[in-house]
Amino acid sequence: MLTEYYNAARTGAVLVEEEWFGLIRFTGSERASWLQGMVTNDVQKLKPGEGCYAAHLTSQGKIVAHMHILADEDSLWLSLERAAIHNLVSAFDKLLIMEDVQMSDVSEQWQVVSVIGPRSRAVIESWLGETVDLSNAWSHRVFEGCRVVVSDLGYEVWVLREMAGKVLRALSASDAVAIDRETWEVLRTEAGIPVYGVDIDATTTMPELGDAGISYNKGCYVGQEVVAKVKYIGQVNRRFAGLILRGNDIPDVKSPILRDGKDAGYVTTSVFSPGLNKAIALGFVSRAAYVPGTEVEILSSGNHLKATITDLPFKS
Q1: By CB atoms within 10 Å of each CB, which of 42, 230, 250, 302 scores lowest?
Q2: The CATH number of the domain where 283 resides is what?
Q3: Do 66 and 38 contact (CB within 8 A), yes or no?
């Protein structure tokens, strides 16, 4: 990672081509009511131009894929990691019976470009030549064939691939600096954003990530009984958390986390944060260790690295 990329993200605006994300489009008159029974959040309450975070689970409550769902007048869009698309489409295919729902993986037709930083809105507006009147997370509008979306890190632009080069040049001309995935990984880690296939997988449950993306007031969906039982009867045995290292040594992924010499979890992502001037990590920690300020050790390559549990996102 180049320091100039990180500084641009913190003081100006950067753009990154998120080739590791894809899109699925749903059409048909029953798309909202069908998807309502498939995911953890309330899809039917979404108005055109709105969006939400959600996940599709197995009947045992394990995550098949987590995603952001955007509503249009005539369709619903799912944005998610390409690593999860095959399994999600396969699962949905088995659950689509006679409903008027059409599902299309349109990842090869669209490119997702992220614009990040305090000047991201100014860059978007300079490119479009008009005000972007969007504020809520995952709200979105279509401008000249491109969809502009409010994201966790700033904005996303969904653009048809044949138009992508032109849009990228225009965003660069509006003072957005193109960065690499390594820098994006640092930014998303600081923001505490988990990635499927990296931080979470088919062994993860949604409550382990917190309450975001879960509606406890909607009707039944696949895996709902397990999620509700955790909420109202039991509790999770582990939680997704941040760790701040004492020094600059970056722990290996999958390194065990120890508390008082006993197993307390493992690391899923680790980077050096220029903003904190320290190594930081994401990982799962046991319920007993999940208290901000708890001192733990990370066993990495034979070294015992001191670390502190912290809430997400990290605060610099």
Answers
A1: 302
A2: 2.40.30.110
A3: no
Determine how β-strand 278-286 pairs with β-strand 262-273. antiparallel
- Evaluate whether residue 207 is within a structural domain: no
Peptide bond into 118 cis (omega under 30): no
Task: Return the SS3 of 227.
Answer: helix
Confidence at residue 235, expressed as pLDDT on a 0 to 100 scale = 87
> To the nearest 10°, the Cα dihedral for 97, 102, 106, 107?
-30
- 183 and 47 both lie in a single domain: yes
All residue ranges of the chain with pLDDT < 50 are none
For 191-211, the pLDDT digits (tens) are 999 999 999 999 999 999 999
From 189, 220, 245, give the residue that closes a domain.
189
Cβ neighbours of residue 48 under 8 Å, at least 6 residues apart? Answer: 71, 72, 73
Q: Tell whether 158 is covered by a domain.
A: yes
pLDDT at 80: 98
126 CB-contact burial (10 Å; exposed 0-12 / middle 13-18 / buried 19+): middle
Q: Which domain holds residue 41?
A: 3-189
For the chain, what is the mean pLDDT? 96
Q: Is residue 105 in some structural domain? A: yes
Please say whether the beta carbons of 155 and 149 come within 8 A: yes
Residue 123 has a pLDDT of: 97
Instruction: Determine if the pTM surpasses 0.85.
Output: yes
Q: Is residue 224 situated within a structural domain?
A: no
- Contacts of residue 94, defined as CB under 8 A and 6 or more positions apart, other chains included, come to none
Question: Could you tell me if 48 and 71 are in contact, meaning their C-beta atoms sit under 8 angstroms apart?
Answer: yes
What pLDDT score does 1 carry? 63
Domain boundary (151, 166, 189) is at 189
On whether both 123 and 180 belong to a single domain, the answer is yes
